[in-house]
Amino acid sequence: MKQLTVIRHGAAGAPQGKKTDFERTLNELGLQEANNIAHQLKQQDFSFDQLFCSPAQRALATAQIIHATLKPNSRPLLADQALYNFDLEPLYRFIEMIDDNIEHAVIVAHNPGLSYLVNDLLREPVHAMSTGTAVQMQLNIEQWVDIQSLCANLISISTPT
Fold first, then answer.
1. 47, 74, 126, 130: which has the fewest Cβ within 10 Å?
2. Each residue of 122-156: pLDDT tens digit?
3. Exposure pattern of 130-161 as b/e (b: 16+ CB <10 Å)?
4. Quick one: DSSP state of residue 46?
5. Cα angle: 63, vertex 66, 72; to 5 degrees
6. CA distance 132 to 83
7. Any idea which architecture 2-158 has in CATH?
């Protein structure tokens, strides 16, 4: 069985000047959300094998805070352009390619894609994920390539408040 945790990045400010959506940074609330969710997960003795994230500034900063707080077993944080999307199918394609030696993967990325994914995987839908929310799921699969709709059971939902 595989385990997947998805985390929506912390709150970000609107693009300023010539900055693009990709360059949006965490605002004060977003920094607080990222720190809060990281500390909540640490208190739960949360561990994982690999943390993946979107390379967009707000997702990368959230992932760096979580990674630094939880200090996983020496695997570096991996940012992947494929996770800078807002749709369901690219997320499935990314997950299918995860190395099967990874038992518990964490993805820090964006809505609405993450909410679509969570609601497609779980038998009981979850409302849209607010910024900084972490959803932990047990997947009824042995290989990542086998991920499919309704293959997950909810372990927990953590919000940064």
1. 74
2. 988 888 799 999 999 999 999 999 999 999 999 99
3. ebbbbbbbebebeebeebeeebbeeeeebebe
4. -
5. 105
6. 16
7. 3-Layer(aba) Sandwich (3.40)
